[in-house]
TrEMBL record:
Ligand binding (NADP(+)): G174, R175, S176, I240
UniProt-recorded Gene Ontology molecular function terms: methenyltetrahydrofolate cyclohydrolase activity; methylenetetrahydrofolate dehydrogenase (NADP+) activity
Reaction catalysis annotation: (6R)-5,10-methenyltetrahydrofolate + H2O = (6R)-10-formyltetrahydrofolate + H(+); (6R)-5,10-methylene-5,6,7,8-tetrahydrofolate + NADP(+) = (6R)-5,10-methenyltetrahydrofolate + NADPH
Species in which this protein is naturally found: Nitrincola tibetensis
Name listed for the protein in its UniProt record: Bifunctional protein FolD
Pfam families on file: THF_DHG_CYH, THF_DHG_CYH_C
UniProt GO BP: L-histidine biosynthetic process; methionine biosynthetic process; purine nucleotide biosynthetic process; tetrahydrofolate interconversion
Entry GO CC: cytosol
Length: 304
């Protein structure tokens, strides 16, 4: 483990997502500056339908990070009564706008709008959430595609602890399309042996006890205790659960942080672990999308 990693982990085994996300954002800002010098200004279009308070906070934070790294943003706020046809028409306009490199439709969408239909309408090369079926399929095939932000952020956190994950047994708890399944695919690409645990799995506790790496993304507050883990496991806690503790509201993960701390090699806290990485990787995806589109435009110009 190098000195930089030791500084990030500190003495309490905490994997500092805030510090590592700051590194990612610094790298993105530098490369954005290089693109701008070539006359390309990376731009992210954000679409928010309705007035969900949590979604408004998420969008605000994403726009703040974009401004910090020099990525332009275009915002579209639509009322909850917006029809699917209107939303799809807006997406088509953004798809055809060469100045827009990334499109993000904030989820969840109001009832009556098919999320899959909306996500499939976004051009894969502008799909900075990594949710389009072309990107999902490409990820499973090991191709270079835009990856879902949370799983790719988790991989960056893991690589901060271990540069080479080859041969390690990784257990992913949760099989969602947004985290669990793409997380398993990325761990396979990193040459891990992967077990994907879900609600129908038998003896989940025993499966978790086999993990060199455990990624918890199930949405059950502090489900995973010390006796669920093998000594020296690396734990990535994706869960964000609001609970009442000691008379006040608190955010906790799917892992009982205080209970497992003495047993693990390293662990992400909640909050301050995976959360900051998700937005940082969104900025990284927007940069990558701009780079790919600029390259395609350059090739097209040469061919013409």
């Amino acid at each position: 483990m190098n000195s930089q990693t030791q500084a990030i982990l500190a003495t309490d085994k905490r994997i500092d997502g805030k510090a590592i996300s700051a590194q990612v954002l610094s790298e993105v800002a530098e490369q954005v500056g290089q693109l701008q010098a070539q006359g390309v200004h990376p731009c992210l279009a954000v679409v928010l339908v309705g007035d969900d308070p949590a979604s408004q906070v998420y969008v605000k934070n994403k726009l703040l990070r974009a401004a910090e790294v020099g990525i332009l943003s275009v915002e579209h706020y639509l009322p909850a009564q917006t029809s699917a046809e209107t939303l799809l028409s807006l997406i088509e306009t953004l798809n055809e706008d060469a100045k827009v490199h990334g499109i993000l439709v904030q989820l969840p969408l109001p009832q009556g709008i098919d999320e899959i239909q909306v996500l499939e309408a976004i051009k894969p090369i502008k799909d900075v959430d990594g949710f389009h079926s072309s990107n999902v399929g490409g990820l499973s095939q090991g191709r270079s595609v835009l990856q879902p932000c949370t799983p790719s952020g988790c991989m960056r956190l893991l690589n901060q602890v271990r540069a080479d994950l080859s041969g390690m047994h990784a257990v992913v708890v949760g099989r969602s399309n947004i985290v669990g399944k793409p997380m398993a695919a990325l761990l396979l690409q990193a040459n891990c042996t992967v077990t994907l645990v879900h609600s129908k799995s038998r003896d989940i506790k025993s499966l978790c006890q086999m993990a060199d790496i455990l990624v918890a993304a199930v949405g059950r507050p502090e489900m995973i205790k010390q006796d669920w883990l093998k000594p020296g496991a690396i734990v990535i806690d994706v869960g964000i659960n609001r609970v009442e503790k000691e008379g006040r509201s608190r955010l906790v993960g799917d892992v009982d942080y205080a209970d497992v701390l003495d047993k693990v090699e390293a662990i992400t806290p909640v909050p301050g672990g995976v959360g900051p990485m998700t937005i940082a990787m969104l900025m990284s995806n927007t940069l990558a999308a701009a780079q790919k589109q600029h390259k395609l435009l350059s090739i097209s110009a040469i061919d013409g």
